[in-house]
Amino acid sequence: xxxxxxxxxxxxxxxxxxxxxxxxxxxxxxxxxxxxxxxxxxxxxxxxxxxxxxxxxxxxxxxxxxxxxxxxxxxxxxxxxxxxxxxxxxxxxxxxxxxxxxxxxxxxxxxxxxxxxxxxxxxxxxxxxxxxxxxxx
Length: 137
Known about the structure:
Pfam families: GGACT. One of its GO terms (molecular function) is transferase activity. This is Gamma-glutamylcyclotransferase. The chain has about 140 residues and is α+β, with helices and mostly antiparallel strands. It contains 3 helices and 9 strands. It has a single domain, classed as Hypothetical upf0131 protein ytfp (Roll), CATH 3.10.490.10. The longest helix has 11 residues, at about 70-80.
C-alpha cells in the first residue's frame, strides 16, 4: 500500500484534491521527484521521467488504510489508467521521491509512452516543475 505522489490537480488546495482525496487521507507531506519534468496538459499536467534533468514538486498523500482500495480504483479511473492498456493517458509506476526526512517509495502517475512522445516533441515544459507556481518555458 504505497502512498501517492501528487503534482497537479490532486495537490492540497486544488479541485481534484477536494473531490477525491479530502477525508480519505491521513497525511500530506511536501516532496520532490528528481529526474522528471512537468509538461502542460489540457488543464492538468503530465510528469515525464527525464533522468539527470528536472525536478517535479508535489506532495506525498497517504490514504487512510480503510480507504486505500477504493481510492486506488478512483485515482486509476481519474487518470485513465488501466493496467496493460496501450491507450492509457497515464501509467501508474512506483518511484522514489525525496522529502525533508529522506526518500519515500510512492505511486506516481506519469505520461503514458505515446503521450510522453507527443509532449517531448511539441509540448510545453513547466519551468520550475511546480504546477502551483507554473510558468511555461
